[in-house]
Amino acid sequence: SSGINAEYGGPMGATIRDIQDRTGTQIEIARRATAVDGAVKLSISGEPDSCADARAMVEDIMEEAQSPALVMLIEEKLCGLIIGGRGAKIRALQDNTGATVKIDKKSDAKDGKVQVVISGRHETSSIT
After folding, report:
1. Counting beta carbons within 10 angstroms of the beta carbon of residue 20, is it exposed (0 to 12), middle (13 to 18) or buried (19 or more)?
2. Distance between CA atoms of 19 and 17, rounded to whole angstroms?
3. 3-state DSSP call for residue 12?
4. pTM for this prediction
5. Which of 25, 72, 68 is nearest to 44 (CA)?
6. Among candidates 73, 61, 72, which has minimal Cα distance to 100?
């Protein structure tokens, strides 16, 4: 079992579940009430190589979360053009740039606009 500090578990734990599924590990995050200096304990258990892979994924997410992000508002009707059929365009954009692109749901639109957040580590992202 390997313990590291983490700040984020993702929406409803989806990020952690994804890492567990991809690595075959078990990940436990301590409750926020136990946080020390804003960080909580995260424990990873499983095969050593799988734990190392999971730890690297968590560290990448934490590094990305601390990177500056570009935030913009786009017209709600343009979401489909960015996302593409079955998400093909947004996946290609992310694959080609190394950036993460998150688009709010249309139901979260304010004044006909949705928020788009583009983030990624500076050295791997071509976003400037």
Report:
1. middle
2. 5
3. helix
4. 0.48
5. 25
6. 61
Instruction: Tell me the three state secondary structure of residue 58.
Output: helix
Please, what's the largest Cα pairwise distance for the chain?
A: 50
Which has the minimum average pLDDT: 46-50, 67-71, 101-105? 67-71
Give the Cα separation of 83 and 86 in Å (integer): 8
Contacts of 38 (CB under 8 A, 6+ apart): 7
Instruction: Report phi then psi at 69, rounded to 5.
Output: -120, 150
Average pLDDT, the chain: 81
Show the tokens assigned to 30: 């301590």
Query: pLDDT tier at 121 (50, 70, 90 boundaries)?
Result: low
Q: Do the strands 40-45 and 69-75 form a parallel or antiparallel pair, or are they unpaired? A: unpaired
